[in-house]
Specification:
heterodimer, A: about 250 residues, alpha/beta, 8-stranded parallel barrel, about 40% helix, B: alpha/beta, 9-stranded mixed β-sheet, 6 helices
Amino acid sequence: MLTKRIIPCLDVKDGRTVKGTKFVDLRDAGDPVELAARYSDEGADELVFLDISASQETRKTFLSVVERVARAIQIPFTVGGGISTVDDVMRALDAGADKVSLNTAIVLRPDFLLEASTAVGSQSIVAAIDAKWSSNGWGVWIKGGSEETSLDAIAWARETVRLGAGELLVTSMDTDGTKEGYDLELLRTISECTRVPLIASGGAGTKEHVRDAITLGKADAVLAASIFHYQQISLSEIKEYLQKNNIPVRL
Amino acid sequence: MIGILDYGAGNIRSLGNALERLGKQFFVSQDVNELQRADKLILPGVGEARSAIESLDRVGLLQWLTTIRVPFLGICIGMQILFEHSDERDTACLGIVPGRVARFDDTDLKVPHMGWNRVNLKAQSVLFEGIRDGEFFYFVHSFGAPLVPDTIGTTEYGRQFSSAVQHKNFYGVQFHAEKSGNAGLQLLRNFSELC
């Protein structure tokens, strides 16, 4: 049986791992390569690295981190942040990443998603969606959550799959960094209307939250950052808990 | 020395990193004359069957592959093209192993089959020496190979499919051994040293 994946996420700025709440207020959380190796040893199923500085100057620093990570671990990892051309996609994969996560650039130019998935295959393309609730439903936000768009998150999720996304990374901006749990309604709605794997993101604070994202949110994988970085809960603790709750995990 | 077949679509970097970690010598090439000197061959693969077959054909490796005598390991698409046919864009494959590779089309399934799943061993093979029955490996694929007499490992995703095959000197694994942690490294070590 296919197991549910637990995916630590490392936000990387200028070669260091950082973590904030609700997309601001960054704190230093260590060397990304060291953290990657530690998570891999502790049983992480996959890793995600987001380049949150993503300026031209820091892009090279980030790619060198990607190369070092690829040599340090033997599990799949995704990179994202500022990827806006097929060349960017190729550079990330050539550096050793298995998948790229695309967000702002595919909202601004949806054809880019089609071009990228055609060039490298859907299996290497993750569509990342930052969603925020309003009276009109869940809206899509871009540029690191700083800019609202007119897109509806549910409709956009379906569209990304049509354009070739092989996986969805859905972050609730309302719950991100709060440690109060994932936005289960958002996750379930998207998971039920798309047929690619869904990674839940934003709000993990306890192992019960992780379980709920899978059972109630119907997520195929769960992503979390701060609960791992500050060693509040270990990966094995979460996985053992999930197994006790009859959720298949790799142990 | 291990020769890695480069047909322009594989994730060669990851495989190279894994072999380096094992201390194995390898080279990457798409030149038949160079590859003929390898004592082992690995065909990594991502993407889809049709483009893999077409790329191999374009660089003149397709026919040659059916004639090789050295141990060969196909990974992911590299395994699928060992079969007779893939339903992915209706593609004729190498036909070293019988059967058709077919899409996961159960409406309840997420496709691709992506993540860690168990490989249940069905026949003795040195490829799995020192690896427990039911070990987890990392999969990413939308098409699954049928169960055939050459099947040495099976995995369940909506149906049972072949996750490892062996026919004479041809070995194939559907999962990404180069991304499957210590078990994957052990499998690559086995191929390097025992096959």
